[in-house]
Structure formats: structure tokens, C-alpha cells
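Dear colleague,

Following up on Tuesday's group meeting, I ran the structure prediction for the two-component complex that the binding team flagged. I've pasted the input sequences exactly as they went in, so you can double-check that nothing got truncated or mislabelled along the way. The C-alpha cells for the whole assembly follow below. Feel free to forward this to whoever is handling the docking comparison.

Inputs:
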Amino acid sequence: MEAPSPSGSWLERQRCIIDYSLQSLFRRRTKNGLILIMYVLLIFVVSSVFFITGSLTVELFSTVDELPDITVQKLIGGRQTSIQESYFPAIREIPGVGDVQPRVWGYFYLQELQANFTVYGMDLNQLEAGDYQRIIDWKPVPQNTREHPDFRMVIGEGVYRLLKEIQMQDSFLFFQPNWESAIPFDIIGTFKSETQLQSNDLMVMQTEGARRVLELKPGDFTDLVVHVPNPEETEMIALKIRRYYPELRTVTRSQIESTYTSAFNWKGGFVLSSMLVVIFAFLVLIWDKASGLSPAEKKEIGILKAIGWDTEMILSVKFWESFIISFCAAICGVILSYFYIYWLHAPGFKEIFIGWSTIYPEFKLVPDIDIKFLLLIVTVTVIPYSAIAVFPSWKAAITDTDFILRNN
Amino acid sequence: MEETILKTVKVTKIYNQGKHNEVVPVRDASLAVGRGMAVVLKGPSGSGKTTLLSMIGCQIKPTYGEIVVKGKPVSKLPEKFANLHKRQHIGFVFQQFHLVPDLSVLDNIMLPLLPWGMSPLERRRRAEELLTEFELTPRRQFKVRDLSGGEQQRVAISRSLINGCTVLLADEPTAHLDAQLTADFLGYMNDLKQKGYTILIASHDPVVCENAMVDRIIEMKNGEIVS
């Protein structure tokens, strides 16, 4: 038989190596399958946490511009209570304050659906005319609506879906136990899906209507919102309000933002730590892989060296084996996680992140994938695993062939 | 006089040199083998046959001395070049065959071709040729672990020949074979010799030593060549 010419290019040799690596993975399919499953599970959990926190944060920040610069609440005995109109002029006089708006809001519990809705009162004419228009899908206004301007409302998508189930999607009857009769409210629009995080359980109505539903006294408000044109002055104005009126509490936009962000991060960390068992099991597997090869694997390396394979080529085989496993795991883990979060809407997982206030109304996550995150997943999983898995093979490959073959 | 294809000059192997457990399995071994010859390294167990054969086959490096194959000194070659030399010129049939048990017969035979980056078609063509020659075609997809000892040996011989080597080394090839399989093996060696292969067999089996195809017997004792 003629001797082969050493003409195969680097690429052709790599193809041969990859062929052999795939064959080798398949031959040890039980062990490799187990590693792959654990690996996919790990990446699935980590990706899911990142996807859900990423999407929620994007949801949050898409509506964050609408948040007031400062919210002012009144406390009595450490409890929040209604705030009176008399505070407005004094706060408005503070230098740097652009405007002060009173708000009426609270919660309405609907026994039939066991759902808690957030009721918010404002001047709906302002809503119809201003920038808010872009976040609302307006519905055809019934003829008699103008005759009851206080009893109109714009609702979140989740509320709309629930009310549709009880055939109240056009008009909803509010009733409180101490009322003599129910009050019908016309639904004139729904909030668009990009504001879901904040609007899903929301009912926005005319201030007087909200005051009736929430049973507030005339002239009382839930809180005040203060608009500050210069963001640099926000903290100082909040401080001044607290100094002038020690009974008032201020909450700035940045505080709300950071509360949300840290809550999501904390919840993300909590979920990751609860998955420690999976992570630990995976580490054990990696350790097993890293701490040594089976006698059969060592012998195979000895055989390959004995028939003329270079150490470099043996390491390439092992590198491709671990790369194929880790890369497939990364891809499968991320795809499964995407499917779970954005198609199945993260059953059993979403509730941990969203919390009690939106438990009942449905809430859809909008995909938000950061390419940096995908690179991070590859960097922290594929590269270290490939390197760790190659190490014992390198140790075997530099050992005397004769010694390996005699001792395995 | 025929061309010398293989030569060892005062080859010595020392394990654990300078330590209390120092071992010298081969000492000052010098031999020369001409092209197309069949030579047997004969000697009892522990006489150094396998070690000398392994050094000639570049499996281990001698501590002292020189090994020349086809006029080229190979004992001090760096690993990469020693591997290339092995792939180009040496075929080695190990005593334990050293096949990958869960690979098929075909894949085992093709293993030495992978470092060349040869196309799958060409690899298969060469392997099929050997499968036919060594009557292994019906077993081509069998896992090696499912074969008999004789069949495994034929796979090992095929694997050693696939690179088109000129020197074939066999270490105790008949140690695990019965009389019939030993005869078959010697038949194959004879055929290869007729085709021009240079064959060096390490064996203490008298059937091998006394076979007609053997041109010369080199006897070893206590690590030294005695005749």
C-alpha cells in the first residue's frame, strides 16, 4: 500500500478530528448525556433568571418616564393617610418646583373574581389630550358618556381580559358594602402592552369618580405628585418638603427605580441560590471530568499516541468533545429558556419576580435579549469547561505511551 | 549485500537512572536488518525484546545509542517528528493488539490516517483494500470487542499497514493464538515479506523462530544481544 502524502490542509485535519470527537462522544453517550442534561439545566436556570429580570427591567424603564419626580404622602402614627389640599400652595412655593398635582388612588377588591385592582383618579380630559394618548388604545365612546364625565375609566389589559369574562368590558358596576346602589363606569380605553408592568391591574378614572369608589372625603387626596423640571434639584426639594412638614414623606423617582431594580436583582439572586443543588451537581460532574480520565479513556489516548498521533491532535479531539457538549448545552439551555419565558410565560417562575400586586391579572413578558448576556453565558460556561476537560487529557498525552499502555 | 533498512547502534535503555530501583532492560544492543528481511528477536521473558522493539518503533526513547531507520537517525527526534516518522515508516502490532474496543473494525483500521487529514473516501478505500486482504470484510462494522483473538490480530495488522509503512514490528504476535491461528499469522507475514516488507518479530515461540520465512534469529538474554 502506498504511503499517504502529507497534503491534508489544517481544515481537513480539523474535520477528521471533529468526526472522531463526535464518534467519541457518542461512544460514551451515557456519561456525556448526563453531563449535557445537567449543563442544559444549569444554563436554562441562569438564562431564565436573566431573561425575566431583563424583560421586567425593560418593562419598568419603558414606563419610568411617566413616574412623578417626587410623590408626597402624609403619615399619622406611622401609617399613610389622606392628604389635604392645604399643602399644595406651600409646596408649590418651594423654589425649583414646577407643578404640584394631587392624586387619588387605592385598591378595589372584586370578590367575584378574587382580584385586586389599582384605582387611580386624574383628569381624564388631560389624558385624552396629552402625551398619554400614545399609550392608550381608545375605544368608541358611548353616546351617554359625556353626561357622566366622572364615571369613565381607562383600564389595563389584564383588567380588560378579566372583565370580559363577566361581560363587563364596556361598562363596569362598582359597589361598596355601605352604598345603596351600584355605580356604572364606562370603559373608554385600555393601556397598551408596553406599559403592562404598571398598567396591567390599573383602572384610571376621573378624580371625583375615584374618590367615590375609594370612599375618600371631598377635598382629600391619597398623595401629591411634585414635578421638578431640573432633575439635579429633585433630592434637595424632597429634603425641603420633609423639613418644612415632618409629617410628610417623600418618594423620588430614582428611589422607585432603584427599589424595583434591587427587588428584581434580589429575587434573581434568590432564585439562583435556590438552584444551588443543580449548580453543585454540575460542579461535581465537572470535577469528575477534570480530576481524571477513566482507564479506558487513558488507554485510548495511549493507543492514539502509539499509532503516531501528536499530543496536539489528541488535545484537539478532547477540546472539540468538550466544546461540542458545552456549546450545545449553551444553545439548548438558552433556547429552552426563551421558549419557557416568552412562549409559556414562565409558569411557576414569573410569580416570584412579579409579586402579589399583579398576581391575578395576566401579564405577558416582552422579549429582551442582550447580546452581552449571550456572550457572558458562552464565556462563563463553554470556555472554562472546555479548558478544564482538556487538562486531564493533556496529562495523559504527555505521559510515556508505553507506561500508559502497560498500566491501563 | 541487501540495503540495511534498520540499524541499532549500542542502544541502551535505563529506567529510574541513578535511583535505587534502576533497571536496565536493554544494554548496548546493536543489530542491522536488511530490506525485505524477516528477523526474529528471540529470548525468554524479561530479556528485553519488547523494550528494544519499542525503541525501534519510536514508542520509547533509548537512554543511549542510536537507531537508524532508512538511513535516518530517529532516536533523538522531537516528539512531533518521531510521530511523523512512526506514521510514515513503522507499522507496529502490539502483543495486546491495543485496539479501541468500542470502535468498529473499519474505524480502528482507519485511525492512523486521521492525522493526515485524508478525505473520508480515500480513508475508506485504503481500509477496504486491507479488509479484503485480511478477510475481514464481513466483520467491518463489528465492534472490535466482539471479535475473536485471531480476528483482532488481523485488525491490528491491517491498522499497522494502512499508512503504507515499510517496516513492520510485531511484539509476541502468537502469544495468544492457537496453532492454527499461529500458522495463519505466519502465512500473512510470509505474504507481506514477499511484497517487500521488512519484518521484525519479538517472540519466544519456537514455531515462529523455526518458520521457513524467517531469515535470521537474533537472540537476547538479560537485555543483551547474545547471538
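The longest helix of chain B spans residues 179-194.

Cheers,
M.
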